[in-house]
Design brief:
This protein has 326 residues and is mostly helical. Helices cover 71% and strands 2% of the residues. The protein contains 15 helices and two strands.
């Protein structure tokens, strides 16, 4: 009996600690989920119910699900208030091309740093990796200046080659069926929205670490069979690195889809703006259309959920393998 009493006393603090841990995690989860619940509620209610407090309606449940729920007209109003469809297409095009370009360039650089041998390889990789320590807000300024001067540089090169004044890039823009398609290069162009995001030191580092974990026997066997360096990269390394490629693709797509600052400073015309910039227009200096803002935000996060659901198998597998072999 004494032994049972002693054991129960020893286990009591453990049970109490477990309960407190679950209580803390539950409270933390509620604080993280509540903003999303509030967003869903605001998107599906009448605008007049936004400022109503739970005390005025007699309880939290009545506040959470008012009589006007579900007010789906908010979604139609959000689409009609701004060129929402065009912004959606712009975000899909920009995010898809940035994702494809970053995965492709990062895989090429990672393959070179992991498998090719050339003088100064490790030092060059360290220098390339050191750029990750520089905040994006610092590099944004020189990249902005560089891209804004591209039309003048291209026109200067063409003028020098042709011997006459050329303004092909600095004063021209594209039109498609009376729709503004942006400039060829420079500000307010798809080129500036897409190309700077196609290169990533983080993506190169992630894929290099994964490439180094792949056994060299595959590469040696391929070379014996007569495979070229490109063949080893395309037929051996990429198929074996699908989890890492999917992980990088998901991270890149999410980051590009949510990008706000860079599209804000390089686009001026509404037909070129991406979705986060157009959503910001619902929030003014003196008034905010909360129902339209939340409805647009829900439509904005749908592709992120779809991308994660589709790629979660490779994403989880990539994180697991990276943790084991890293």
């Amino acid at each position: 009996m004494d032994e049972l009493t002693t054991l129960s006393r020893q286990r009591a603090p453990i049970r109490l600690t477990t309960v407190l841990t679950y209580v803390f995690l539950t409270a933390l989860a509620v604080t993280m989920v509540f903003p999303f619940v509030w967003m869903l509620r605001t998107a599906f209610i009448d605008p007049r119910d936004v400022s109503v407090s739970p005390e005025k309606v007699g309880g939290f449940l009545r506040w959470l699900v008012p009589a006007s729920f579900p007010h789906t007209k908010n979604f139609a109003d959000a689409v009609e208030a701004v060129p929402f469809g065009r912004a959606y297409i712009n975000s899909i095009i920009v995010s898809s091309l940035v994702t494809f370009g970053q995965v492709f360039t990062s895989s090429l650089a990672a393959f070179a740093f992991a498998r090719l041998k050339f003088p100064g390889r490790d030092k060059l990789f360290l220098a390339y990796l050191a750029t990750m320590m520089i905040p994006g807000s610092v590099t944004m300024i020189p990249v902005f200046i560089f891209t804004s001067q591209l039309p003048l540089w291209f026109d200067g090169a063409l003028s020098w080659l042709s011997g006459s004044s050329v303004t092909l890039f600095s004063h021209s823009y594209y039109m498609f069926q009376n729709t503004y398609m942006g400039r060829p290069v420079g500000l307010d162009s798809y080129f500036t929205l897409i190309v700077p995001g196609m290169f990533s030191a983080y993506g190169t580092f992630l894929l290099r670490q994964f490439f180094m974990s792949i056994e060299k026997d595959y590469e040696e066997a391929a070379r014996i069979d007569g495979a070229s360096t490109w063949g080893i990269y395309w037929r051996i390394m990429l198929p074996l690195s699908r989890p890492a490629l999917a992980t990088l693709a998901i991270f890149t797509f999410m980051g590009s889809w949510r990008a706000y600052m860079w599209p804000l400073i390089v686009t001026y015309h509404e037909d070129i703006m991406t979705l986060p910039i157009l959503i910001r227009s619902f929030q003014g200096q003196y008034r905010t259309e909360w129902t339209l803002l939340m409805a647009a935000s829900i439509m904005h996060i749908i592709p992120l959920l779809i991308a994660f659901i589709i790629g979660q198998k490779y994403f989880i597998r990539g994180v697991r393998i990276g943790g084991i072999k890293g």
